[in-house]
Amino acid sequence: MNPFSPHLLALVAIGGAGGSLLRYATGIWCAGWFGTALPWGTLAVNVAGSAVIGLLGGLMLGGLAVSQEARVLLITGILGGFTTFSAFSLDIGTLALRSPALALGYLALTLLGGLGAFALCFAFGRVLA
């Protein structure tokens, strides 16, 4: 099946919108309950999203048949809109099954690359402002 077929793209879009709304609502709920001293909403969506994608990944690797449409809607769409950290967690977990060293390298590259890119562009943005 063409990964860019209109119905798969629609499932990604619908799921992404739903996941983004859930992320927004979770942030508001967490700020109301726990305050804003720490980004509790971000922590909550990262942990919850990682738990859900871990369960789905484990079920699928364990033999649960999940259609491409369901994977695209749930994982790419809803969880992708909710938190991309969940996808990162799944990537690390599946890489670790193949090669713990490769998983560790990917973890280091992602963290250092992401934080480095943020720091560089954050400083650049401040200079531009």
TrEMBL record:
Q: What catalytic activity does the UniProt entry give for this protein? A: fluoride(in) = fluoride(out)
Broad class of where this protein is predominantly found:
membrane
Q: How does it sit in the membrane?
A: Multi-pass membrane protein
Which keywords does UniProt give here?
A: Cell inner membrane, Cell membrane, Ion channel, Ion transport, Membrane, Metal-binding, Sodium, Transmembrane, Transmembrane helix, Transport
From which domain of life does this come?
A: Bacteria
- Sorted alphabetically, which InterPro entries does this protein's record hold? FluC
Record comment: activity regulation? Na(+) is not transported, but it plays an essential structural role and its presence is essential for fluoride channel function.
Where is Na(+) annotated to bind?
80, 83
Q: Where are the transmembrane segments?
A: 43-66, 73-97, 103-125
Q: Where in the cell is it found?
A: Cell membrane
Chain's role: Fluoride-specific ion channel. Important for reducing fluoride concentration in the cell, thus reducing its toxicity.
List the HAMAP family hit by this protein, alphabetically.
Answer: FluC
According to its UniProt record, which protein family does this protein belong to? Belongs to the fluoride channel Fluc/FEX (TC 1.A.43) family.
Q: What is this protein called?
A: Fluoride-specific ion channel FluC
The species this protein was found in: Roseomonas haemaphysalidis
